[in-house]
Amino acid sequence: MNANVAAPGPVGATERVPVVWRNRTVHIEYQWIAPERSDAPLVVFLHEGLGSVAMWKDFPRQLCDTGGLRGLVFSRPAYGRSTPRGPDEVWGVDFMHQQAHEVVPAFLDALGVQEAAWLFGHSDGASIALLMAARWPERVQGLVVMAPHLFVEDVTVQNIERAREAYEQTDLRHKLGRYHDDVDSAFWGWNRIWLDPAFRAWNIEPEVAQIRAPALAIQGCDDEYGTLAQIRGIAQRVPGTRLLELPDCAHSPHRDQPDAVVAAAVAFIQAHHTPA
């Protein structure tokens, strides 16, 4: 959900897999990292509200190589090179629930992934990871969530309003276009639902309280899209949650403090992973 967009970095070739979702077929862009590490923990990366495979740049590779892990990176429908939103498709308040309960499991099924994976989510992707862990505990080994949203805060809405202004009045649309085949599909799907008055009541604290997987929750102390109440809310509800609150860090810890994030995530996964 970060409107501060850097230049694209090197990303390897991606593939697309068809997934049937709500009686239509969408093609989801994805990329494997080190699949030859067949006995290593699998980390599935879930991107932010304006993200994609390319937006992650080389961070998933850095994390996986440091920890000797396997990785799976993908672009949700409407993002990256995945199928864009339909011309009349408007996202509802439950759009993250739909991704967690339906799209991500169907995507993993399409690739034949049956093992319990580690979910590494950022922003909206972190919320989706939490929702999936609550609904599908048998498919989730553990969680690393950065800048997740449990509920809607005024600061979040204010900065998403600023992002809309930037998209309409600056070169933000051009910058985001480097990461998405249909940039309007990605931006307006995200922006309009977050600014919908009905979305102000969105809250996943009851679902988070159902999680029993180990969780590492990371947030920047200078996060412009949410306060530390978000990750502290996870710690209040999920036993054994580890918190990492990073100074001099905004909404994207993996960009602002990549070494600290990698070190914490690798140590957490290695400490809590249970071999199949």
Describe the 3D structure.
This is Pimeloyl-ACP methyl ester carboxylesterase. This protein has one domain (15-271): Alpha/Beta hydrolase fold, catalytic domain (Rossmann fold), CATH 3.40.50.1820. Helix content is 37%, strand content 18%. The protein contains 10 helices and 8 strands. It has an 8-stranded mixed sheet with strand order 1-2-4-3-5-6-7-8, sandwiched between helices. It is globular and about 50 Å long. Mean pLDDT is 95; it is low at 6-10.
Question: How is the topology of this model organized?
Answer:
Layout: E1 15-21, E2 24-33, E3 42-46, H1 59-67, E4 70-74, H2 95-110, E5 117-122, H3 124-135, E6 140-146, H4 154-169, H5 172-176, H6 183-194, H7 205-208, E7 215-220, H8 229-237, E8 242-246, H9 253-256, H10 258-272
Parallel strand pairs: 3-4, 3-5, 5-6, 6-7, 7-8
Antiparallel strand pairs: 1-2, 2-4
Helix pairs in contact: 1-10, 2-3
Describe this protein with a few key phrases.
eight-stranded mixed sheet, Rossmann fold, 10 helices, 18% strand, single chain, AB_hydrolase_sf, AB_hydrolase_1, 276 residues, alpha/beta
Quick summary:
With 276 residues, the chain is an alpha/beta fold. The chain has helices spanning 59-67, 95-110, 124-135, 154-169, 172-176, 183-194, 205-208, 229-237, 253-256, 258-272, and strands spanning 15-21, 24-33, 42-46, 70-74, 117-122, 140-146, 215-220, 242-246.
Question: How many E-type strands?
Answer: 8
| Average residue pLDDT | 95
CATH class: Alpha Beta
Unreliable residue runs:
6-10
Number of domains: 1
Cα(first) to Cα(last) distance is 34 Å
| CATH architectural type | 3-Layer(aba) Sandwich
Strand order of the largest sheet: 1-2-4-3-5-6-7-8
- What overall geometry do the principal axes of the alpha carbons give? globular
- Helix-strand topology string: EEEHEHEHEHHHHEHEHH
- Return the CATH topology: Rossmann fold
| Number of separate helices | 10
CATH superfamily, please?
A: Alpha/Beta hydrolase fold, catalytic domain
**Largest sheet, described in full?**
8 strands, mixed
**Estimated share of beta-strand residues:** 15-25%
